[in-house]
Prior knowledge:
- The protein has helices at residues 43-49, 99-102, 152-155, 161-171, 187-198, 213-219, 230-234, 282-287, 299-312, 326-334, and strands spanning 3-9, 18-24, 31-41, 66-73, 85-88, 91-93, 114-115, 135-139, 144-145, 179-183, 202-207, 223-226, 240-245, 260-268, 290-293, 318-322, 341-345, 360-361.
- It is an alpha/beta fold.
- The chain is built from ten helices and 18 strands.
Amino acid sequence: MTAPVRSYAAHSPTGRLGLFQFDRRSPRPDDVVIEVLYCGVCHSDLHTVRNDWGNAQYPIVPGHEIIGRVVAVGAEVSRFRAGERVGVGCMVASCRHCGSCGKGWEQYCESGATYTYNSKDPIDGTATQGGYSEQIVVAQDFVLKVPEALDPAATAPLLCAGITTWSPLRHWQVGPGSRVAIVGLGGLGHMGLKLAKAMGAEVTLFSRSPGKEADARRLGADRIVISTDEAQVASVAGRFDLVIDTVPCDHDVNPYLPTLASNGTLVMVGYLGPLTVPLNTVPMVRSRKALAGSLIGGIAETQEMLDFCGQHGITSDIELIRIQDINEAYERLIKADVKYRFVIDMASLQNGAPAMGSGVAA
């Protein structure tokens, strides 16, 4: 039987998120039913709600940085039990049999991954809805174990911001002796600094803001380079094995290519879309440098990241908010007025007025 749940949803690209009641789908034999305790607020939530990518299907309940507690499991579930702390990230399904899924790259599923919200359940076709809600139902293969030693609220952003930076760090084999630069100090950037430092790399932050130096060093940066200062940028020419660009809007990437060492890679994780300033390929061709992209990470890789964070005591720097303040949080997110991730305490949902509207979702 479906179960009615309360949530906050968007009904148009210009309206405010508000209370919304819908029915979660009936649990299947391999499903885990999860009470949502905390949910991080991602730039992707804002882009999707405001239809910046042109694929919004309203109503939308955002949220894909979910920490919760198992309240029930299906008959075929073997990995989880009631009462366990668990996480759910950006995906809730994939085909599981294509070449990418076979390699543990469910995020690159050749049939298209099923996202935690604004997607379609591959079995019954219902709309998926995310973690700005009381409860979520997810197949056990897409549920993650969360180390008990970590603060649950500050762990929530690891399910997107953490894995988005961890995946390129692992793919390009960062470790002791590596030289890594992070472009931008926000939700993604601050996690990139923490993770790269814990992996043993020398870490540099590229930032437009001189005032961020103290915070950057606290988070793990060995060096800060002001990206608008040509002399400072020139001083690190040919230095980096990997540059992770976390900036979430269109910008000129050309200044960063000369800072790569031969065989180095500049990987885009923050911005999806065309670049206005044409790419100058000269530095790439002359020294076999590469421009690449990376999208979140697979389930096994995300579990590896959570385990690593548990061992090293790594969480996100957060500001805890009530669900009732989500619209104001979105406005602050646009202004980068947060250090460094908003997380919703979903207990606050119990304090709202009776929900409006109805729907059915995975």
